[in-house]
Amino acid sequence: MTQQIARHGQPLVVDEVGMTYGSGESAHEVLRGLSLRVDPGEFVCIVGPSGAGKTTLLRCLSGLLRPTAGSVRIGEQPVTQPLAEIAVVFQDYRGSLMPWMRVRDNVAFPLEGMGVKKAERLERAQQSLEAVGLGDVGHKYPWQLSGGMQQRVAIARAIAYRSPILLMDEPFGSVDAQARFDLEDLALRLRRELDITVVVVTHDIDEAVYLSDRVVVVAGTPTSVVDDLTIDLGPERDQIATRALPRFAELRSRVLSEIRGERSPGHPAPDARPAPGTGPSASAAGAAPEGERRAEPRERSESTAETVHTSA
Ligand SMILES: Nc1ncnc2c1ncn2[C@@H]1O[C@H](COP(=O)(O)OP(=O)(O)OP(=O)(O)O)[C@@H](O)[C@H]1O
């Protein structure tokens, strides 16, 4: 790894965020009173039922969407538009890579808009591709690569910004199981080697527990934080050994039952860590009424991973 990123040193703070799409009779309140904090260098996954508003939240975190209530900040700096401090990776690499551009140019191109000179753009692109294990494919086109490799290119493009915060929305959902495991381990390695803060939105509970220092569970109607759970599995993770730990099973069961509404947010488990700003009112807002947002756990076809799908 040749690239090193200075840690930003400021937390990402989500303070009582609310988001309502539309207005009047067609208003749809998706998020209400949602608060959380991600400290520099943390790896945090946000999990919740399908349709709960995870992508909406991530778009608010990235500055792509202005919340209708509350605020998002890096330290004291409001995030009201996309910032150089925050890079984003979306799920659909097919839609985000430009097929007519070589891989190297796909990674380098966005840096042009940041005023980075050509020689440095190409150097950063090569470094970033090396960081994701694709140092020798810069001359190829995206469509000449596998799905997993294309998503690595999307990650390389994000880290080429050298942003201290990396946000990823269901980043590994479009690839097969083996590629997914490899990408998960890549994300862990990048966090460690680049010393960045990583926030991943996923509906895959096993993935969240495997990757995270903390799992933030969001649920309810409207959606809020129902748990902020420290993942005490140690800094080193291994796809086989970590997932076989009894503690791993305990943590995934807890998250699953919270998403399914089986654990009342008003009665958290003893080791629950309340999110900043999530007082009793926020918890009440996050309570999933019986029968609502009831998730249907679905087996990941190639593994025993628990995924959650439900209609909003
Ligand atoms: N631009 C928009 N305008 C109106 N409603 C929207 C818009 N974007 C999302 N929604 C609605 O907000 C709700 C939350 O959507 P969102 O995509 O954020 O959820 P999600 O948890 O990411 O879902 P999934 O897990 O299925 O990807 C849904 O009911 C969706 O229809």
Automatic annotation (TrEMBL):
- The highest taxon in the source lineage is Bacteria
Q: Where is the ABC transporter domain?
A: 12-245
**Stretches the record annotates as Disordered:** 258-312
Point to the regions of Low complexity compositional bias. Answer: 274-289
Q: Does the keyword Transport apply?
A: yes
What PROSITE patterns does this protein's entry cite? ABC_TRANSPORTER_1 (PS00211), ABC_TRANSPORTER_2 (PS50893)
* Listed InterPro entries: AAA+_ATPase, ABC_transporter-like_ATP-bd, ABC_transporter-like_CS, ABC_transporter_ATP-bind, P-loop_NTPase
One Pfam match:
ABC_tran
Alphabetically sorted, this entry's keywords are: ATP-binding, Nucleotide-binding, Transport
Compositionally skewed regions (Basic and acidic residues) per UniProt: 290-303
GO molecular function, a single term: ATP binding
Q: What is this protein called?
A: ABC transporter ATP-binding protein
Q: What is the lineage of its organism?
A: Bacteria, Bacillati, Actinomycetota, Actinomycetes, Propionibacteriales
